[in-house]
Amino acid sequence: MSDLKIFSKDIPINGKRVIVRLDLNVPINNSKIDDDTRIKVIEPFINKLIENKAKVVLLSHLGRPKGKVISKLSLKPIFNYLEKKLNGKVHFYRERIDSKAIDASNKLKSGEVLLFENIRFFKEEENDEETFAKNLSKLGDIYINEAFSCSHRKQASIHKITKFIDSYGGPILEKEIQSINLIIKNKKKPVTCIIGGSKVSTKINILSSLLESADNLVIVGAMANNFLKFKGINVGASLVEKGSENTVKNINTLAEKNKCNIIIPVDCNTSSHVNGSPTYKSLKNIGSEDMILDIGKNTINLINKTIDGSNTVFWNGPAGYYENKNFSAGSLSIGKKIAENTKSKSLISIVGGGDTVAAIKNTGLEKTFTHLSTAGGAFLESLEGKELPGIKVLKKS
User: Fold this and answer.
1) Disulfide check for 140: which of 17, 135, 266, 324 has CB 3.0–4.6 Å away?
2) Of 94, 199, 229, 281, catalytic
C-alpha cells in the first residue's frame, strides 16, 4: 500500500485543475437514476475539493457504448443530479476532447466543476490510445483515480493518462485496497468468506485463492446447487451449471489441502417458479419440480454460528433469488448478522459486489460494515492476487 501515490490534503490544489476519474456507472431508466449509491459515495470527496478551491474536472463512463454516441447512455441525468448535490457550480461538456475542451477547463473558476460527457463515447478510451490520453491529461494539473472498479481495465482515462500528469489514487480507491489487504495480507483470523451468486465458473479463481487465506468458505446462492448435486443430493429443477463437476471436485480437494472448512446449505426454501411463494424443504425432500431459491432456517443458523466464530468476514454474492422478496430472507439474515457483529464484536466485515449491495438495499445495514465495495470485478481480481493495470501505474517509481 505504501508504494502507491495516494492523494492527501498536503497536496496544494487551490486554483489548480484537478481531474477526478469516477465510476458513475449507475442504472438509469427514462433519464431517471434508479440507484444513486455510487454517486453518494463520492460526493463528500468532490465537495472537499470544491471547498479547497480546486477547479474540478470529472470523467466517467456509463454502460458500454463502444465508442459511439448513444443518447440513453448520456451522463446528462448525472449532471442534473450533481447540480443539486454539489456545493459548487457544475458545467456539462459534451464536445470532443480537443483544444476547445482544454480551454473550457482553463476557464473554470475555483470551486467550480466541469463534468465531461460519457468518456466511452470515444473509441480511443477503450483502446487506451496515447494521443487521446495526452489530450485528457491537458484538462488538468493533477489526476486522481477514484474509480477502483474500473482499474482492472487498460483504458485511457485510467491507465495511459498517468504517463502525462501527476497522478494519485483517491481516498475511496485507497480504502478498497486496504480492505482487500484485510482479507489476504493483514488478516485477523479466523477468516470466513461467504460466496454466492449463480456461477461457479466465473468465480473459480477467486474461490481457489480465498481457500488459501480463509478458514471457512461458505457457499450459497445458485452456486451451492452444484456442490449439493456433487454430493449426490437431488436438486430438482434448480439452476445448475453444466460441466461444473470437475470444478467442484478441485475446490473440495484444494480446501482439504489448505485445511479450509467448506460449508454448503443444509436446507432450503423452494418454489416451482422464480416468482412463486416459498416452500420450506429439507434436502432429502426436494421434488423434481422444485427450484432451490433461498437458504433455509438451519442453514441460516449454521452461517450465524460460523460468523460468531470469525474475526474477519468477506461476503460476495446473495444467498438466494433476492429479486423476489420471498427469497431475500437468507441474504438479509447474513447481512444483519455481519452488521451486528461488526457493531458489537469488532468483526472486520468486507461486503462487495453489486448484487450483494442490491440485496440489502434500503436496510441501513450497508452503513455498519467495515467496508462496502461496489467494485465487483476489479475487487475480485485483486483478491485473486492480480495486479490491476490502473493501480500499477499509480505506484511510486
Assistant:
1) 17
2) 199
Residue of 15, 63, 276, 377 marked active site: 377
Query: Which of 38, 138, 153, 337 is flagged as catalytic?
Result: 38
| pLDDT tens by residue, 252-274 | 999 999 999 999 999 999 999 99
Give tens-digit pLDDT for 20-49. 999 999 999 999 999 888 899 999 999 999
Helix runs in 185-296, H state only: 204-213, 223-230, 245-257
Catalytic residue among 170, 221, 320, 354: 354
Is 377 known to be catalytic? yes
Active site residue 229: no
The region, left, alpha or beta by phi > 0 then psi within -120 to 50, assigned to residue 364 is left
CB atoms within 10 A of CB 186: 11
Has domain 177-383 been given CATH number 2.60.120.10? Answer: no
pLDDT at 203 over 90: no
Task: Verify whether residue 38 is a known catalytic residue.
Answer: yes
- 199 as an active site residue: the answer is yes
Q: Is 204 left (phi over 0), alpha (psi -120 to 50) or beta?
A: alpha
pLDDT at 2: 60
Q: How many residues does the chain have?
A: 397
142 HSE (CA, 13 A, CB side) = 21
Pairwise CA distance, residues 44 & 46, whole Å: 6
How far apart are alpha carbons 237 and 287 in whole angstroms? 8
CA distance 58 to 55: 10
What are the sequence ranges of the domains in the chain?
Answer: 17-169, 177-383
**Sign of the four-CA dihedral 378, 19, 157, 161:** negative
**Cα–Cα distance between 165 and 146 in angstroms, integer?**
15
Alpha carbon 371 to its chain centroid, in Å, reads 11
Q: Which residues, at least 6 apart from 242, have a Cβ–Cβ distance to it below 8 Å?
A: none
Say if residue 1's pLDDT is above 70: no
The whole-angstrom separation of Cα 114 and Cα 91 is 5
Mean pLDDT of the chain: 94
Q: 17-169: which CATH architecture?
A: 3-Layer(aba) Sandwich (3.40)
